[in-house]
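Protocol step 4 of 6: structure prediction from sequence.
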Amino acid sequence: MEECSEFSPLESQLAAQIRARLGELRGTESRVAQVVLDRGTDLVHLSVSDVAALAGTAPSSVVRACQRLGFRGYQELKIAAARHAPRPAPGPADDRDPAARALADSLRAAREALDGMTATLTPADLRAAAGLLDGADQVLLAGTGLSGAVVLDLAYRLRALGLLVDAPADPLTAQLAAAQLPPTGVCLAVSHTGATPTVVDTARRARAAGAAVLAVTSYARSPLTEIATHTLVAGGQDLVFGLETTASRLAHLAAVDALAATLLALRGPRAEQALRLSADVTADQMY
């Protein structure tokens, strides 16, 4: 397979590390390694399921191939690729001021993430998700790491609209709660990559219990979306400087904000009554 010229190649040492192990790989693992070489630094924009589709295999095979290549998993390989991804040329001021460069890059990533939502999130998606939550007897929220902040924000919003919400901080408690959901319950899982094991496992247990699963994620194709009954896709560039940025979290917050507003309109007087209680609580905490 020839390398695709439309993608920037991996940094030479990383590419050499992968090529050196090609002879040890067979079948699907070899195809995964070739996809990694062909896609180069474009890997930072691909989920594990995207790579699996390109290689004609399963996400689990992608993870195993990455481990055979010397990485702990696909995410570590993406981080290695991102460290050497091409960056925009600095402006005359940015090249002398790291803070100016960081501010410009962060604002650019945030704008791109929010603007990109118009291509991945539709009013129909929001209406379907709001209808699902409106009919739920119980809503379980799941998310860890930086996605946990989105979960906390959404938990408050949904409670303020009168929904019965559970948002366990402990992942084992979340999985137990998922296994106990009734068929009329909903598990709302937030994961940037859609491949966070504890979140995916929580969603899987909810589905096994007969509950619906609503995913908020940055990738349309991932282990989480394969489980989900409904998906809201919103997110930005995956990695910058080898670290996850907050751009995708801003997009996720905007998505759940729109979801809450849609739910408010759908629930009408029921939500307005609950909001009055929320306003009373808030007023009591002001001096």
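Step 5 (inspection) to follow. The mean pLDDT is 86.
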